[in-house]
Every structure is written in C-alpha cells, then in structure tokens.
Amino acid sequence: MGILTWTWILVGITFALYIGIAIWARAGSSKEFYVAGGGVPPIMNGMATAADWMSAASFISLAGIVSFTGYDGSVYLMGWTGGYVLLALLLAPYLRKFGKFTVPDFIGDRYYSNTARVVAVIAALIVSFTYVAGQMRGVGIVFSRYLEVDINTGVYIGMAIVLFYAVLGGMKGITYTQVAQYCVLIFAFMVPAIFISFQMTGNPIPQLGFGSAGEDGIYLLDKLDGLSTQLGFNEYTSGNKSMIDVFAITVALMVGTAGLPHVIVRFFTVPRVKDARVSAGWALLFIAILYTTVPAVAVFARTKLIETVSNAEYAELPEWFGNWEKTGLIKFEDKNADGVVQYVADKSVNELTIDRDIMVLANPEIAQLPNWVIALVGAGGLAAALSTAAGLLLVIASSISHDLFKKIIKPDISEKGELIAARLSAFVAVLIAGYFGINPPGFVAAVVALAFGLAAASFFPAILLGIFDKRMNKEGAISGMIVGLSLMFFYMAKYKLGWIGEMPDSSEWWFGISPEGFGTVAMIVNFIISIVVSRFTPAPPQHVQDIVEDIRIPSGAGEASDH
Fold first, then answer.
1. I want to staple 276 with a disulfide (CB 3.0 to 4.6 A). Which of 96, 202, 486, 546 is the partner?
2. What is the pLDDT of residue 33?
3. Is residue 330 classed as helix, strand or coil in its secondary structure?
4. Which spans of this chain does the record mark as coiled coil (predicted)?
5. Residue 353 DSSP SS3
C-alpha cells in the first residue's frame, strides 16, 4: 500500500480513538471540564502530562533544530527537561495543596486581588496563544504532506478535530485522549529511530547508535562534522552561540516550563498532593524516552540528508524530495542552471532551502523505510500537536469562563452557564489559534520558545514568591508581572517579529541575548520589581500569610485533598 493509503488508515484509526474517548469521557460538570473531577491516577496523569508537554515542537521541530544547529540545539534539550525537575520540586505539590483550578485562580486568591487575577488571565492568554500558534502550524505541516493538501487546509482540518474533543470533553476528555496520544506519539517517534539506527550503525538503540561507527568504520559524529565543514557549515559538535546566550535560553526554557499554565493545571487533576509529585516523576520518565532519542534522530536525519541531496543530479533525486517540494517546505533554485543541487553554507551559492520543521517527518522517507512507518510518523506528529493544542485551548477557555466570568464579571453564574461560557471560549480560541497557525511568526520550535520566555517573564516569579515569600503582596506581584511581560513582549516584537522599526541584527541584542533567551532577563527584572515594591507597600493580610505558611507544611501531605 502507498503512503497516502497507510496515512488514511493510521490517522483514521487514531482519530476515531481520540473522538471515541472524548465522547466516553465528556465533561458533565465544570469541575470535570477544568480538572477532570480531580480523580486521575498518577501514572495516567504523568502520561497525559508528557503528551500535553511534548508538543509539535518536541516531536516535529526539536530534532530539526538540533540537526541544523548541532551543539547549540542542546539548550532546548537541557532547558525543557530541566524545567520539569523545577516544576516537580518547586511548584506542583504546593499548587496542588493550595487547591485552585487555574494559575490565574491561584494568583487572584494568593494576592487577594481581582486586578492580579486579570493580569494573570492576560498573561495566560498571551502565553497560550503564542504556544498554540506553533501547534496549529505543526498540524498544518503534517496534513500538507501526508494528506496532500496545502498547509492552510491542514490547519482548518486540525481546528475542527481539536474543537470537537476539547469543547466536548473538557479536561476529563482531554486527559484520557492524551494518554492515547502519548502512546501513539512515542511509538511513532521510536520505531523509525530504531530502524534507522540499526540501518546506519548496526545498533538498534538510537541513544547508543549515534555515538557508534557506521559500516565504513567512521564514527557517525566525526562523519557529520566532516560533511558539515566540507559544505562550509560549522562543525556539528562545536557551538556557535555565546555562553551568556546559551545560559539565558536554558534558564528561560526551564523556568518557562515551570510557569506554563496548561502544564501546571494538570497537577490539579490527581486526587492528592502526594500524587501531584508522583505524577511529575512519571511524566519526567515518559518525556525522557523521547528527549534522549532526539539527538540521535537529529544526527541520522542530517547525515542522510546531506548524503542524499548534496551535489546530486536534481533529475535523479528520490521520490521523497518531490513529495516535500510540493508542500513548499523544501525548495530548489538552480542558480547556475547545471541541474546539480548545490547545498552549501554560502547563501549566494546555495540552491536548496529546507524548512527545519520537516526533518523528523521526512527522515523515514529519506532512509527509505516502509510506507507504514512513514505514515506512522505522520500520525505521531498529529498526536503531539493536537494533545498540546487541546490543553492550551482548555487554559484559554478556563481563564475566560472561570477567572473572568465566574470570579469577576458574573459571580452568580450557574454551573450550566459557566460550562457554556467555557465551551464558547474554547470555540473562539480555536478560531484565533487557527489564524496564528496560518500566519505563524516563525518555525514551530522558535514560536514555542517565545511562549516559554513569556511564561518565565510573567508567571514564574509570581508563583514562586507566592509560595515561598509570606511578605509578597499584591502590589509587588502585579507590578512585577506587568513589567516582566511588557519587557519580554517589547523585546520579542522588536528583535524577533520586526514589529517596531526595521528588524535589527544579532549584534544589537541586549547583553548579546537572543529573543528566545530574553525571558531570563525579563524574569530577573520581574523578581527585583516584585520584591522591592512589596517591601515598600503594606504586608498581605494575616489570613493570606497563614495560607502561605500552610501550603509549605509537608506533614500529612499525602492525605490532603482540598485546602
């Protein structure tokens, strides 16, 4: 059977599974819609959290970044994985003990202020929409190749699917759907990695394979270094970024992970405080399976790509090249009209433009694996993008319906009315997310990295200080969030999106820090402003200080359920 037939079969089966689960687990109350009724077992919550967090950026784009940037791409691996350790140790158990549905709910109650709640809602919406743009773009890329439609049509199809199970099932439906999606995405990522590792090195374990020698006796990384330098690129195993930028990006991704509202809300879906910590541990294990494989997939893909296309006759290129060329994600421009592909670092000579988001998806085709494996990767990419998109849409819906309508605009709204507001909010959010998917501000992982920077600049200081600093008050938290978020947004708009004047080059970056890493600077400014302002303004009420004291007491934490 051909790739298209296999794709329809595998995507059809997986989508039927997701939709069936959404119908079976549909939400009947606002608690089920927001936090799945608080009864999800830790191992399942860990699996759902892993699927929620391993988005299109992790599945589709991360190995693409590493394959093109080599050593420099390791900041994403360190930052995103390290962030999970931060989340498990510093935030998850305490937030669960506090017992609120959403991050704005925590900030509104902890800082005894509707103004703080509104600022947190705005921050949650900005972070979530920035993040979801990357997911919808990922969905479009997968559909464009495997269903042979254009990227925009792919985004529309993805919008319809996400809308169905996010609006119908809420967190309850999404949680059990994400368990299925994790199984699909991890199987889809590992199967081709094992195939290619064995094909290139004789070792079926990818993590060991990419450090092994190939059939020619040359170590794979040495071979890739040689191929890269021959074409004028940097050595694959040497870094190009400055130490300050590597540090800033890693920290921004770490604290951004720990401040992501759609990940934090997952720890409210388990029965007890102890379960929040256990499920964070399970999630880290499930995430590590993919993340330790990414560097191997990156090396396999980059080596195969260079060997296949560099100095090859265009007319003799394999079928996969033509398939991806139709999507517009790989382009050949014969500048010297000799019919030979010149793939080099020198832009004036280079004739090949490759969207780095295609590397994982095209990898099985480049390696000439069976059609069912190629289609399986497409199904995995969709699972990764749709699972995270659904989680983000739920954050958007709950921020609007629960934190704005229920808590501020209409406190007497009925349970049914709140559920309707949540579903309407999710519907509008899907439309906006689709727009950003069609008009993305960059490739998938870069867009997602900006969302992490925004989360680091806004939420992380407010949450951390809210847990560990009794003296932190509403004036400090509000000032810090506004300044941190505004600073990050300005830097992003000027140095990444080019919305303010002409796009400056990297020599003009503040402190030599890229937009992806600037969340660290904005976070530090947020911390300083929050602490200074809080010390010059009245202390929080005594009952708030007592709550802060209480959520840090571990005694009996295993039995605590709601506080």
1. 96
2. 57
3. strand
4. none
5. strand
Q: pLDDT tens digit string along 312-323?
A: 888 888 888 888
On whether the CB atoms of residues 47 and 286 are closer than 8 A, the answer is yes
228 vs 164: CA distance, rounded Å: 45
- Across-strand partners of 73? none
d(CA 148, CA 354) in angstroms, rounded, equals 18
Neighbours of 507 (CB within 10 A): 6
Local confidence band at 522 (pLDDT 50, 70, 90 cut-offs):
very high
Question: Could you identify the residue written with the tokens 């939709």?
Answer: 19
Please say whether the beta carbons of 457 and 451 come within 8 A. no
CB of 474 closer than 8 Å to CB of 113: yes
- Residue 276 and residue 52: Cα distance in Å, rounded? 15
CATH code of the region 3-302+368-551: 1.20.1730.10
The SS3 of residue 340 is: strand
The tokens for 346 are 């020198």
Place of tokens 């085709």: 365
Neighbours of 235 (CB within 10 A): 15
Burial of 16 (0-12, 13-18, 19+ CB in 10 A): exposed
Separation of CA 3 from chain center? 28
Backbone angles phi, psi at 332, to 5 degrees: -115, 125
Report d(CA 489, CA 273) in Å as an integer. 34
> Percent of the chain scored above 70 by pLDDT?
90
For residue 419, give both structure tokens.
């559920």
Q: What is the pLDDT of residue 442?
A: 56
CA 245/CA 265 separation, integer angstroms: 30
The SS3 call for residue 313 is: strand
Q: Alpha-carbon torsion 467, 404, 271, 459, what sign?
A: negative
Distance CA(199)–CA(33), nearest Å, equals: 46
Based on its alpha-carbon atoms, the radius of gyration of the chain, rounded to whole angstroms, reads: 23
Phi, psi of 192 (to 5 degrees): -65, -35
For residues 283 and 169, the model is more confident at 283
Q: Chain centroid to CA 55: how far?
A: 4
- Domain extents for the chain? 3-302+368-551, 303-355
